[in-house]
Amino acid sequence: MAHVVVENLSKIYERGKVRALWNVNFSVEKGEFLVLIGLSGSGKSTLLRCINRLVEPTSGRVFLNGLELTRLSPRAMRRVRRRIGMIFQQFNLVKRATVLQNVLAGRLGYTSTLPSLLGWFPKRDIQRAKECLERVGLLDKMYVRADQLSGGQQQRVGIARALMQEPELLLADEPVSALDPATSHSVMQYIEQINKEDGVTVIASLHFLSLARRYGQRILALRAGEVVFDGPPEAIDDRKFKEIYGEEAEEVEIR
Amino acid sequence: MKLLRARALAFLLDLLVWAYLLYSGFTLYYLSALWSPWRPEEKLVWPALSPWAWAVVLVGLGEAVLLTQAFGPSLGQRLMGVHLVAEDGAPPKLAARLAYFGFSHLALATLGLGSVLHPQRPWHERWAGVRLEPLPPPSSAVRRPPWYRTAYGLTALLVALATLAVGWRLTEVDLRRLVYDASKSLRIWYGLIGPDFRYLLAPDPRIKLSLVDGLVQSLYMALLATVAGTVAAFPLSFLGARNVAARHPVGWAIYALTRGFFNVVRSVETVFWAAIFAIWLGWGPFAGATALFVHTVAALGKLFSEQVEHIDPGPVEAVTATGANLLQVVRYAVVPQVLPQYLAFAIYRWDINLRMAVVVALVGGGGIGRHLFEYKDDLRWSLVGAVILLFMLTVWVMDYLSGWIREKIV
Ligand SMILES: Nc1ncnc2c1ncn2[C@@H]1O[C@H](COP(=O)(O)OP(=O)(O)O)[C@@H](O)[C@H]1O
Ligand SMILES: [Mg+2]
Question: ipTM score here?
Fold first, then answer.
């Protein structure tokens, strides 16, 4: 049984009447690293958000370990979200809060409401936060305010926050688009490490095909909300490339 | 459809403009001719025009509207963003405008039937050889005439002048009195220069409180109302924020109710609330503080809610994605983003409440305002002077303090 299964997924935004996703079908095996590519506006963010239902799909079904997520009550969905980490293009940290507080927020799904409202976390969660920060090399920044960090460091805090969830699935929405090439690779390597060492399934959207080729085991390409390619990176030839990105596009290398 | 709406609304707007000018004219005429503030026994009576005279006035009104529209753009046409052009798109010639003016009487007589049947170009426009078009954007190459050479500019000027003139008369502005009667206020200025601090510490035998007692009472009224108001507004502000509360129909209802509460309560001034609570709770500082509190909750609630609506949605999304519930999302993604502004607003509100704490005494709210209004009623100006000086000093100190604190937190 595949880890994640997406069946006939469609999303139409009422506001603007945009058909963001149209009849998307694919499945991801446990431990796979799937990369989403496509022009901006092709529906990558929408697809990722339909999986953890930050965006409510218009129709279609999403399964995780055979459990149909699209049928769950909000409460049950919250329980499932605990095991789905997510990192974002804009990092989405609380800028005024410390790094530690941001990382601990990854644990909220496991913490009962009242203690967490008072800012109280179990000792082992704080210990775990330190371990996660150690993993992304930011232990010394624990008490620094998030807005004091560089872009690459902020994204690593985002990764640590996702790690706190002990995820089985990691969704990454253009995790390196706001970063320069060198930093991009360092951040991508942390994600790759989580995929390889912890066996976490990763679905990441990436802006550059060269990054997708370098990190993806499999590539899924969207164009105007429809899947136009699903296969290994090597199978994207010049013709396919033009089909995904349009006739005028040129492949740019990012090293 | 768009043009039909523009045509109808432009007509209504112009009708309104001319009716307003007519009303202003009448008001000015009767204010100056028959009634003046110095002869108040003669009441302001509206004219009893004969039906004939009314008919003439109403027809004149209609003609004025049609005329400004034909030689427009009129104010209504300008506001709706349309103007008349000839067949070739140029401004219509005089003859075409006159023809349009004539034919529009027919349009008016048929109650705009032509416009309904042919919204793009009704009969009277066709016969006159003109048509209604959207105004070109200001950036386009066509140079617009200066405002004082357009019908809408001149009408707007008339409206402004009429408003000023009527306002001047109705508020009984009289510059002569400002100068000649200045000596009447001398006693107050003397009182301020030579304040009488005899009740500074000793209690006033009638009020039973000294000035300092009253001042301390006012300070605590303001402090209690501000703190309690902030605490109460805090949870309400999330219910009144669209991005937090209005996520489903029930939440939307809560959001609308909360916002409605803020707006209604806020629009009733603190003094009115004080009058209500002075009867409800009896005269005294409790009534005053409650009034301050109620208005503070609503005013801060609205300001807070708007802050919540302007936060960065990214952290909310991220914390939601971890499986946190709504309360946790608010606590970890919303509160840290708004807390500094909340504090700044609360301190700003403290400045307002301190001043309002004096005013509420006017209707029985307690505090140092009571001294102020009693001494004023007794015309004991040097005692009034003492109250004002003491209060000014306090306000200075407090403004300085709160400004300093605000700087520290934001
Ligand atoms: N909240 C929204 N409301 C309306 N339209 C949206 C919304 N979010 C995205 N869209 C539209 O849906 C399409 C897909 O957007 P998105 O999923 O963000 O694409 P990508 O991440 O590939 O750039 C775009 O046309 C976008 O304008
Ligand atoms: Mg996107």
Answer: 0.94
